[in-house]
TrEMBL record:
Quaternary structure and interacting proteins, as annotated: Interacts with the Sec translocase complex via SecD. Specifically interacts with transmembrane segments of nascent integral membrane proteins during membrane integration.
Primary localization class, coarse: membrane
Protein source organism: Arthrobacter ginsengisoli
Keywords on record: Cell membrane, Chaperone, Membrane, Protein transport, Transmembrane, Transmembrane helix, Transport
Protein name, as recorded: Membrane protein insertase YidC
């Protein structure tokens, strides 16, 4: 086992253990153990467990967004101070003053990425677990906390006719519905990228003013707003259906969460918090 695999193993075991626990619970409630719906609901339940555990991080993210709103007048003054100065020393000085401003007010514009970064190892763990399902099923082995019997069940299960272990790039297992795989994959890729775009657009609208959009940092943010959905959309062709279900569900959760935790119109009148205090 190489270093990367060893690093990912605890996450693989945890992800598969949560799925197996949810699957066993649903089976105990009367759902067929080998049903694709049972395994699909287990994947969705995995998202709910992980995202519920991340709620404190999400609340901190919203606090950061609100602090960023309060900092916009001072950031605008800083941009005006260095307006037209494109030499390396001026750009470095501006960046240092920006970071000092963030530090003084206890905020960090990159904190908005924290929930996504925390999810990355779980996402890759699920990807490796589901990608190895067919191999484990044929070799007579289990994978993570999943027994060989459960691996075979998962490998043979489908959602709307599409095998959960199938993907656009790596094809469909023998007997699988190729058309269903294509339709379901495309629908979920569009749904997850749309949800991600709407979420990022919402965050940007509530974190920066119109005047600050001209800054170099925000130009980079605007580029990422369009680049990330394209990257994840393109990556969706290698994701098994089960992973697409996970990623679509978590992106929809994030979108709804943003509107629930920070539903107000951006740049509404009136102070929210004092810069030095938590909202």
């Amino acid at each position: 086992m190489d270093f990367g695999a060893a690093l990912l193993f605890p996450f693989q075991w945890l992800v598969s253990a949560i799925m197996v626990g949810l699957h066993n619970g649903l089976s105990a409630l009367g759902m067929p153990a080998a049903s694709g719906w049972t395994w699909t609901l287990s994947i969705i339940g995995l998202v709910l467990v992980i995202r519920a555990a991340l709620i404190p991080v999400a609340l901190q993210q919203v606090k950061t967004q609100r602090r960023m709103r309060l900092l916009q007048p001072e950031l605008k003054k800083l941009q005006d101070k260095y307006k037209g100065q494109t030499d390396p020393l001026s750009r470095q000085a501006m960046a240092q003053e920006q970071m000092a401003l963030y530090k003084a007010h206890g905020t960090n514009p990159f904190a908005a990425c924290l929930p996504l970064l925390i999810q990355v190892p779980f996402f890759f763990a699920l990807f490796t677990v589901l990608s190895g399902i067919s191999t484990s099923a044929n070799s007579g082995e289990g994978i993570g906390a999943m027994s060989h019997e459960q691996v075979v069940q998962f490998d043979e299960s489908s959602f709307f006719g599409a095998p959960l272990s199938a993907s656009l790039l790596h094809g469909t297992p023998e007997g699988g519905n190729v058309v269903a795989v294509w339709i379901l994959s495309i629908v979920m890729i569009l749904a997850m990228t749309a949800a991600q775009f709407v979420t990022q657009k919402h965050i940007m609208a509530r974190s920066v003013s119109a005047e600050s959009m001209a800054g170099p940092f925000m130009r980079q943010q605007k580029m990422m707003l369009y680049i990330l959905p394209i990257v994840f959309g393109a990556g969706g062709i290698i994701f098994p259906i089960g992973v697409l279900i996970y990623w679509t569900t978590t992106n929809v959760w994030t979108m709804v969460q943003q509107f629930v935790l920070d539903p107000r119109s951006p740049w509404e009148a009136g102070p929210e918090i004092s810069p030095g205090s938590a909202p």
